[in-house]
Design a protein that fits this description.
By secondary structure, the chain is an alpha/beta fold. It contains 11 helices and 11 strands. The longest helix is centred in the middle third of the chain and has 18 residues. It is globular, with a radius of gyration of 19 Å. The two termini are 31 Å apart. Bound molecules: adenosine-5'-diphosphate and magnesium ion. The site of magnesium ion has 4 residues, from helix 1.
């Protein structure tokens, strides 16, 4: 059973813009996959559909989360809320409640799991508070638990958002350009945390990124979108500048350029080698894992 399975997903906005064009995608449990593409290629639209925040065109299509459909043929299923509990969504702009404490923001992750009376009184069981403090410790900001979210730096807020996904006990994290608003050092920390959620907690991670070098550094597999189509799905390591040029033409520059305040820690030359301590030894072979490595028919 796949963590995420997408079949024939298309999305046309009311202005006629076709943002997603017959997307087929499978992500296995425990994978950490990058979603890349120039701005406007459909990354956010795709992630929002997977989370059930948006519905596809009313043609035959399906998105299933851990074996359960979340939307079919342009309609959300009735149990959408229950299925969404397995998904933690991380936004570029953090989406914390500014006036609440960091701890309260993280506890929001537990809300959907708690009985109704807890939700309306906002009284959290001790076990949930312990879990949220542990999660904040894990992302390295336990000492800020009592501070208002607004007082944290962008990187710290994003780490709180990851702690919230942990407290939610999400099994899948969808992160939409989570580091686009961050400086290189904060970006590295947030990506490290995402990797920890993947490795240490077994969460499936699908993260959209603007830059290929980060994808190569953190994600074994990359799915590349161009104009709403999957133009590449395969090992991140194979995404050389030459291949990107072939896939994207002039748009390739947008995916390769260094951020203004570039940092050596984020350069592709420093990509970490495969970790021998990673227990992911019975991972499927690339042939099994990827729908296709590079299908020229999709480049048209
Ligand atoms: N609500 C909307 N209404 C109309 N067009 C939209 C809407 N949202 C996104 N689009 C268009 O869909 C395409 C894909 O957008 P998006 O998914 O935001 O791309 P990305 O996240 O890769 O930058 C773009 O052309 C964008 O302008
Ligand atoms: Mg986007």
């Amino acid at each position: 059973m796949e963590a995420i399975r997408i079949e024939r997903l298309s999305k046309t906005f009311s202005n006629g813009r076709k943002a997603l064009d017959e997307i087929d995608l499978r992500v296995a449990p425990g994978e950490m996959v990058a979603l890349i593409g120039a701005s406007g290629s459909g990354k956010s639209t795709l992630l929002r559909h997977i989370a059930g925040f948006a519905v596809s065109d009313p043609q035959p299509s399906r998105i299933a989360i851990l074996g359960r459909p979340i939307q079919e043929n342009g309609r959300l299923v009735r149990e959408v809320r229950r299925i969404r509990r397995d998904i933690g969504f991380v936004f570029q702009q953090f989406n914390l409640v500014n006036r609440l404490s960091v701890e309260a923001n993280v506890l929001i992750g537990a809300l959907a799991r708690l009985p109704f009376w807890r939700r309306i009184t906002g009284r959290f069981p001790r076990s949930e508070r312990a879990l949220s403090l542990a999660a904040l410790g894990e992302v390295g900001i336990a000492e800020h638990a009592r501070e208002r979210a607004a007082t944290l730096s962008g990187g710290q807020q994003q780490r709180a958002a990851l702690a919230r996904a942990l407290v939610q006990r999400a099994r899948i994290v969808l992160a939409d350009e989570p580091i686009a608003s961050l400086d290189p050092e904060s970006s590295r920390r947030v990506m490290d945390m995402l990797r920890n959620l993947n490795r240490d907690h077994g969460l499936t991670v699908l993260v959209s990124l603007h830059q290929v070098d980060i994808a190569m550094q953190y994600c074994p597999r990359t799915v590349a979108l161009r104009r709403g189509k999957v133009v590449y799905d395969g090992p991140s390591a194979a995404l050389t500048p030459a291949l990107l040029q072939q896939l994207y033409g002039d748009e390739a520059r947008e995916l390769l350029e260094e951020p203004a305040s570039s940092d050596a820690a984020l350069s592709p030359q420093q990509a970490t080698p495969p970790d021998p301590t990673n227990p992911d030894t019975d991972a499927p072979s690339p042939q099994q894992r990827y729908a296709f490595a590079l299908d020229p028919a999709r480049l048209a």
